[in-house]
Amino acid sequence: MSQRHAVVAGAGIGGLTAAVALHRRGWRVTVCERSPRPSATGAGIVLAPNALRAFEAIGFDAGLAAGRAVPAAMGLRRQGGSWLNRADTATLAARYGRPPLAVYRPTLAASLAAALPDSAIRHGVTVTGVDGAHETTPVVRTSAGDLTADVVLAADGIHSPLRRAYFPDHPGLHYSGETAWRTVLASDALPEGSPASAETWGRGQRFGFVPLTDGRTYLYATAVVPEGHRPADVRGELLRRYGSWHDPIPALLERIDPAAVLQHDLYDLAAPLPRYHRGRLAWLGDAAHAMTPNLGQGGCQAVEDAVVLAHLLDAADGAGTPAALAAYSAARCARTNAIRIRARRAGKLAALAHPLAVAARDLAVRATPARAALRALDDLFDGFVLPETTATPTTTTPPAPAPAPAPRPTA
User: Fold this and answer.
1) Is a pLDDT exceeding 90 seen at residue 88?
2) One CATH from 3.50.50.60, 3.40.50.1110, 3.40.50.720, 3.40.50.620 for 5-71+102-172+271-352
3) Considering the entire predicted model, what is its pTM?
4) Please, are residues 158 and 286 in contact by the beta-carbon 8 Å criterion?
5) Assigned CATH topology for domain 175-267
């Protein structure tokens, strides 16, 4: 049987994970990424236990790939500094078999890319359309010419052109009412004695920090603002909003480089897609189920998507590809949509601004027993499973060993 070919639109975490998963199952993969080169800047990503379990299923050690991955604790504080709840890494590891890991997103992407053949990723190439998605060999239209494929994976992001093209009546994106600032500070940013990581809730505003792989610290902040709000003085805006909050927040803000601060309004899908496939074309990650980051599951669900897709495709022969993608929709739609809705609700709770509503919220969070708070995460962190397949895999290629750590990028 000839080697099957997958074309992936988008070299984000989901697209690269799908490419690695299929490559390790004997597929030829081509990843088309519109950016001219890999990103050298970015933010952090916390890989929850469900994403780590999915990576393990394809033989990819995310902790090793990221260098010295930092186990991430979880905790919520008031802006004055008092704790609402906490869960340390030992508790999380005991319950879920592993704690979350905080990694630098460009380093993780570079490690995934290093697990692919040199020619697999084509930067500066935009997928402009797919013809014959229901045919045996769809034709992928790109800015660099046409490609034929056995399957096409749309990992082209939150504003997915392929989603708009194939679901023209879908209402598109919904603005959450919040914007987010993100940046990464150089090493040793956290003062001695600071908590390992925490998120602080105020009135319509949040601030969080998480240590990353090489001593750097990932910062993020959100605020309820009109869509498109872009302050001219980023440092001044952040200091005005968060500069009086508890330590070490003021000291961290003093160290930011305004030019390195990313700002994005937060969106999710206004409604779920009816399915995540059309013939031999499938959507994954933000292209399929864009969600707000309030549960930290956007990237994690993209990883789950990619691994489930590869698992189902590998178990089908060429003629069974459409059925495998239909099984992917069946396996992923309900879970990802439930998490999308839950993330939206969590964001509304965290964004409360009225003093009485904030007081009631904080009291409820603080009164929730730690064991009950963890139970609420079980379906997220323990929810990844590979669906059963009835076909015999078409390749016996064993998973490749996990790639060596990629060189650490400079900030």
Assistant:
1) no
2) 3.50.50.60
3) 0.92
4) yes
5) D-Amino Acid Oxidase; Chain A, domain 2 (3.30.9)
